[in-house]
Amino acid sequence: MEGGLLSPNLTTFLHTIINFLIVLLVLRLFVYKPLTNHMKKRRDTIKEALEQAEKARAELAEIKAAGEEERKKARREAEEIIANAVREAEKAKREIIQQAREESKRIIAATQEEVKHEKEKALLDLKENVVSLAILAASKVAEQSVDEKAGKKLVSDFLDNLDLRSVGGGAKV
Questions:
Q1: Number of domains the chain contains
Q2: How far is residue 152's CA from residue 159's CA, in Å, rounded to a whole number?
Q3: Taking each helix axis from N to C terminus, what angle separates 148-160 and 33-142, rounded to the nearest 10 degrees?
Q4: In a domain, 155, yes or no
């Protein structure tokens, strides 16, 4: 060595430069390119995953909004069904009440008619009883035999002209 350790040597310098370039070329071919390719693939994978996550987030928001809308629609339909049921129940209630009123009016009218007939029947029975009693009383009083037919006619005519209100019967027959 000519000048010592610290003196420049051109051949060593050139060998160092050539070795450096060879190492650089080998590193570039075997390390840098695969590493950059791998990093590019990784970046693309991450970018794609982020895009998918954003799509999924947007779809979730749409599904959530649609679910909320369906829930609101179902609630409106349920309220509508309940309102219809209440209206129908009120209508049925009114109809039942109306039918009950009509039925009670019919029953009252039928009862009044029946009472009227029973009253007329009772008055006729009473008239017949009074006629019989009058004939019996008249025959006892006169102690004579009165023809039953003639007696009935006589008492019947008398009772037809008699005002029962004055006697306490309540109505003129």
A1: 1
A2: 10
A3: 120
A4: yes
For the segment 117-166, what is each residue's pLDDT rounded down to a tens digit?
999 998 888 888 877 777 776 766 665 555 777 777 777 777 777 665 55
Structural domain includes residue 172: no
| Alpha-carbon span 151 to 105, nearest angstrom | 45
Burial zone of 155 (CB within 10 Å; 0-12 exposed, 13-18 middle, 19+ buried): buried
Domain that holds residue 45: 12-167
CB atoms under 10 Å from CB of 130, counted, come to 19
Lookup result for tokens 């369906």: 70
CA angle at 162 for the pair 157 and 166, rounded to the nearest 5°: 165
3-state secondary structure (DSSP) of residue 3: coil
Tokens (6 digits) for 35:
């590493």
Look at residue 173 and tell me if it is in a domain.
Answer: no
